[in-house]
Amino acid sequence: MSTWTPEDLAAIDDDGELRVAAHRPDGTLRAARIVWHVVVGKALFIRSVRGQDGAWYRGVLRTGTGAIDAGGVHTEVTFTPDDGQDEAIDQAYHAKYGDGSAVRSITSPIATATTLRVDPR
Length: 121
Fold this sequence. Notes:
By secondary structure, the protein is α+β, with helices and mostly antiparallel strands. The protein has helices spanning 6-14, 55-63, 86-97, 101-106, 109-112, and strands at 18-22, 33-35, 37-40, 43-46, 65-70, 73-81, 116-120. The termini are close together. The model has no long low-confidence stretch (mean pLDDT 96).
């Protein structure tokens, strides 16, 4: 597993939206979708607000790889389910995006069940 450079992680974190595209089994990329993201420690995390029904989430699970674009960083990545820091991730979503209904949705049990760590390839 590769790790983010501090500069890339900071640039991604500073951006309010991350575009994520999953690889298809043939290696081509699906259409990018915008998701909210947070950084906890030295790791990048995303969730599906629609839970396991989110189309982009299902696509990511099929291959575990794709590409992201945020903060001027465009890179190939891997997606790994990771529920080890859910409380810290919830706090990071609240700190970054506030306490509105969208944040309540992304920190709900349905969304929390889809927590993915995003690592550069």
